[in-house]
Amino acid sequence: MKKVILPIAAIAAFMATASAQSSRLFAITGDTKGNVNWNAVREITSLDGSVKTNIYSPSENKAVRYQSLANKSITPSAEPAISAIAATGYDAKTNRLYFTNMRGNSLNYIDLNEKNLTVISNDAPAFNTGDKFKSEANIITRMTFGADGAGYALTNDGEHLVKFTTGNNPTIADLGRLTDGSKNGNVSVHNQCTSWGGDLVADAFGNLYLITMHASVYKINTKTLVADLIGSIKGLPANFTANGAAVNEDGDLIISSAVYTESYFKVGIASLEVIAPVKAEAGVYNASDLASANLLYQSKATVKNAEVVAAQEKVSVYPNPAVGKQFKVQIANPSADKYTIQVTDLRGKTISQNTASVAVEGQSLKVNLPIGTPSGLYFLKVVNNTNQTVLNQKLIVK
């Protein structure tokens, strides 16, 4: 059996779909500050919200090419056009910015790899969540990419959570209706007053987080579709509506408003409190939506620490994919005498946890996963007895 030594790049990609932290942050804005047509796409900075690049704005008169998935030209219409956008998600793996129009039934993306601005439109029936002109409840206003690499889009009323993939043969599936958690009380994820609008972000464990327009926060299990109310964001100005949300490189939320141009706000997910304004000297563009490829609980500090310690200890795991529910962890240069090996699923549930002693350099620690462990993607974490993380990475079980 051939042993594979994991490169540092693989460790740095812990809990990420295509890369670790990304500095790319996108905003859907109007052509000018205060404008609410949502017809401009800009890349902004997470430090102060200033504009790095205008990907598209009407005043620049940039030509846009519209195409179907079959690479056939499309006559611009209300659906694929860059206008009235309230939901967008960035896929770093393909370098595409996905979006849908408030009144449209197509899933579109801007191919950021193309020199010329190109919009690709997918009008698969599964993305049609109902007549958006008759009812705003059917409008998709929230979108993000999860730890599994798939995109997720949610209607205002929480009746449709749509999952989509981005490969050569993309799929779209309506997962169905969200269910309120047992402790939500009178605050329902379906309630228009508290829970419509806003945006979605994802964490490194496979969950989604819904930040509503009125700053209520729900944690959504993508397997059970249960939405648990975890609180409300504290410290936002009274006239601030939470319309866009993304995660920065440090694992903090960045919140934008469709009506507030003074600043965006950085919010701690654990405390649900404003940490600081994200503010350029001249203010920011009010934004209907934000998008990044980062995940909550995927901090720079954690990854950097794992890189340094793993490099020193020369940690390796093999085979990966694990065959027969078994794999080994080898530590060529141990700094401690005991190590805890933990395997969790995408929801953060612990599948296996064992503590083993390392008596000699290069000793292999064998791990047997429980009988019946389903095949799929898991996360492997190795911690020494001084509480240093020496390995954080994906583990595939066959």
Mean residue pLDDT: 87
Annotation field: number of helices = 3
* SS strand fraction: 35-45%
Number of E strands: 29
Structural domain count: 2
Topology of this protein?
Elements: H1 8-12, E1 25-29, E2 40-44, E3 51-56, E4 65-68, E5 85-91, E6 96-101, E7 107-111, E8 118-122, E9 140-145, E10 151-155, E11 161-164, E12 172-176, E13 179-180, H2 192-195, E14 199-202, E15 207-211, E16 216-221, E17 226-232, E18 244-247, E19 253-256, E20 264-268, E21 273-278, E22 287-292, H3 300-313, E23 315-323, E24 326-331, E25 338-344, E26 350-357, E27 364-368, E28 376-384, E29 389-397
Parallel strand pairs: 4-8, 13-17
Antiparallel strand pairs: 1-2, 1-22, 2-3, 5-6, 6-7, 7-8, 9-10, 10-11, 11-12, 14-15, 15-16, 16-17, 18-19, 19-20, 20-21, 23-24, 24-27, 25-26, 25-28, 28-29
Task: Provide a brief overview of the structure.
Helices cover 6% and strands 41% of the residues. With 398 residues, it is mainly beta.
What does this structure look like?
With 398 residues, this protein is mainly β. The chain has two domains: 8-14 and 301-397, Immunoglobulin-like (Sandwich); 25-297, Neuraminidase. Helix content is 6%, strand content 41%. It contains three helices and 29 strands. It has helices at 8-12, 192-195, 300-313; strands at residues 25-29, 40-44, 51-56, 65-68, 85-91, 96-101, 107-111, 118-122, 140-145, 151-155, 161-164, 172-176, 179-180, 199-202, 207-211, 216-221, 226-232, 244-247, 253-256, 264-268, 273-278, 287-292, 315-323, 326-331, 338-344, 350-357, 364-368, 376-384, 389-397. The strands form seven sheets. Strands 4-8-7-6-5 form a five-stranded mixed β-sheet, with no helix packed on it. The chain has a five-stranded mixed β-sheet with strand order 13-17-16-15-14, with no helix packed on it. It has a four-stranded antiparallel β-sheet with strand order 3-2-1-22, with no helix packed on it. β5 (85-91) and β6 (96-101) form a beta hairpin. The longest helix has 14 residues, at 300-313. The chain is globular and about 65 Å long. It starts with 7 loop residues before the first helix and ends with a strand. The model is unreliable at 1-20 (pLDDT under 50).
